[in-house]
């Protein structure tokens, strides 16, 4: 049975969400503080966590960061804060999805099912995941996701990204990237790689002037800078 940990300091919310989850045949454990959530998380090992942002001791972002130190268990954040900054902070701390209060319990249940289904699909398909899931590359379907939003790349952009991510500790010269992505007989200019890199950064980096994933190694070429999720 799939296990869900529900964390919120409002008992009414915990009771309602729990009732809906039990009706859908989920096994449920509850916690009312961040400290209690962490204790039960490591003791009970849930398949997914529904986590309130505003808790009386450790807030949801801090709980998420601690869980993300050694676990990729999906986390859905609940919050009354609907600002873009609040949502971005939650996602950057490692949350997989975000639900703003007040909410329908049915919506929360469907979000849980969607996230669990996505995790199952990723486990079945070879997926490269970096920076706590902020960047994901599905190798078989050749799809790229940034913060779980699919990014449209050209074939060449995808080939460059997938090649560098597969060998993420290696420095690539422009010539090597051409050979690996376009073929050794390709007669194009090696500076064309710079244009593809520029476009790739624009699409996957939060700030393409301070890239996290595609790093320039001056005088040598490029390397992949993402931290691989285990």
Summarize the model shown.
With about 230 residues, this protein is α/β, with parallel strands linked by helices. Helices cover about 40% and strands about 20% of the residues.
Q: Would you write up a description of this structure?
A:
The chain has 230 residues and is an alpha/beta fold. It is built from 8 helices and 12 strands. It has helices at residues 11-23, 34-44, 60-68, 84-93, 105-124, 155-166, 174-182, 192-204; strands at residues 3-7, 27-31, 48-52, 75-79, 97-100, 127-130, 135-138, 143-146, 149-151, 171-172, 214-217, 221-224. Strands 2-1-3-4-5 form a 5-stranded parallel β-sheet, with helices on both faces. Helix 3 links the parallel strand 3 (48-52) and strand 4 (75-79). The radius of gyration is 20 Å and the shape is elongated. The two termini are 25 Å apart. The model is unreliable at 184-188 (pLDDT under 50).
Strand content: 15-25%
Radius of gyration: 20 Å
Shape: elongated
Number of strands: 12
Portion of residues in helices?
40-55%
Instruction: Return the CATH topology of the largest domain.
Output: Rossmann fold
For the termini, the CA-CA separation is: 25 Å
Largest sheet strand order: 2-1-3-4-5
Mean pLDDT: 87
Looking at CATH, the homologous superfamily of the largest domain is Response regulator
CATH class of the largest domain: Alpha Beta
**Parts with pLDDT < 50 across at least 5 consecutive residues:** 184-188
Q: Quaternary status of these chains? A: single chain
CATH architecture of the largest domain: 3-Layer(aba) Sandwich
